[in-house]
Write a structure and sequence with these properties.
single chain; alpha/beta; Rossmann fold; 6-stranded parallel beta sheet
């Protein structure tokens, strides 16, 4: 038996080796796209606003964007074995992403993982905004997809493990019972006082879960530090 009830995994730069949204913006977006990220990192705007602005820069048809992602952005080869190992223990894995969303299921399909639940934003070509936030918080507009809410919902199955690497994972990590962090999330977790285990591949996550004797538990917060209202 494992000491966790479920595992939530970020997609861009985590389950996928690359930040797909960033690759698409480099290839197809306006050169100004990084300015939105920098404003978000400074805390001036939320990711909700960033995603809308950057998605509007991608004028190419979705098929062309997806074809590019499939060619250039492979899923981490250690992810599928990790998922199957957890499934043998009856521990579900859910993808939680605050990205553009449309490329996640097709990329998972390349690793026979299309059955995984995905909590993310939805992509549209109906002439309006390209991204819709169906998994946002009912009040807060800080993020597109509310990773805090995803973690709190997952806790119905028991302690939650969260695997991530970047700024949007901060709000899932704060509420999770055990956090696996790499890259930018390491410094973010340190600054927030979130206990974490470092990882590079999902083999590392598996080995640490196998040896995990104690669940740190969430540091929690009365209000998510990313909270914003209109």
């Amino acid at each position: 038996m494992l000491p966790i009830g479920s595992v939530l995994v970020d997609f861009d730069g985590t389950a996928c080796l690359h930040d797909v949204a960033e690759h698409l913006l480099i290839e197809f977006g306006d050169p100004s796209w990084p300015e939105w990220d920098h404003a978000w990192e400074r805390g001036e705007i939320g990711s909700h606003e960033v995603i809308l602005a950057q998605a509007a820069m991608l004028a190419e048809p979705t098929d062309a964007l997806l074809a590019f992602a499939l060619r250039h952005c492979p899923v981490d080869p250690t992810f599928a074995p990790f998922v199957r190992w957890l499934e043998d223990f009856g521990v579900p894995v859910t993808i939680v992403s605050d990205g553009f969303g449309f490329y996640i299921e097709p990329l998972l399909r390349t690793s026979a993982l299309e059955h995984l639940p995905i909590i993310t934003n939805s992509w549209s070509e109906d002439g309006g905004p390209r991204v819709h936030f169906e998994n946002g918080h009912p009040e807060c507009i800080g993020c597109g997809t509310c990773k805090m809410a995803a973690v709190l919902d997952a806790r119905a199955l028991g302690p939650v493990a969260y695997v991530g690497e970047g700024g949007s994972d901060r709000f899932g990590a704060i509420y999770s019972d055990v956090v696996f962090a790499k890259d930018a999330l390491v410094d973010i977790a340190k600054a927030d006082g979130v206990p974490f285990l470092e990882w590079r591949t999902f083999d590392d996550v598996r080995h640490q879960l196998e040896r995990l004797d104690e669940i740190p538990g969430p540091i929690g917060a009365q209000r998510c530090p990313g909270w914003r209202t209109a």
